[in-house]
Amino acid sequence: MRHVVRCLSVMLVAAFAAAAPAQADTTGSASGLPVPRYVSLKADKVNMHIGPAKHYETKWVYQRAGLPVEITAEFENWRRIRDSDGTEGWVYHSLLSGRRTGVVTAKSKAELISLYEKPDSKSAVAAQLQPGVQASVKRCNTSWCRVTGQGFDGWIPQERLWGVYPNEKMD
Known about the structure:
Layout: H1 2-19, E1 26-27, E2 34-35, E3 37-41, E4 46-49, E5 58-62, E6 68-75, E7 78-82, E8 88-92, E9 96-97, E10 101-104, E11 113-116, E12 125-129, E13 134-141, E14 144-149, E15 152-157, E16 161-162, E17 169-170
Antiparallel strand pairs: 1-2, 3-6, 3-9, 4-5, 6-7, 7-8, 10-13, 10-16, 11-12, 13-14, 13-17, 14-15
């Protein structure tokens, strides 16, 4: 009976989270932090499950620490996440980090995205980044984000970065 009640609770949490608007700033029931919110993967190997428990089938295995993901729901010590490809599932909370990262996005895989020395498209270009490049997000000023990574440091237009919300400010 206890298992049935738990399964019903999980289904209710999942149904409510699926029905909630993507940008509804609510507070997570388990953490007290905003949901949705961006975080990153803490470990090099993270299993995504189809439900909020280890006994649920593994849907996906991430092998890239620092990858940004969006928390869309919470259930006890489990967080439902969405990655930049739109894949959703459940991950144990201790495998996530509050460190903010982003992935460079573009309209095509061949397009290079300019990284500037200052938050201004008229400033000098510091680097050209390919789509999919992962970066640490240091700060954002509603339209530009300062990012760093292996061999680069500069400013990128916020809309070219998956892992921050439109018009988000971060210090």
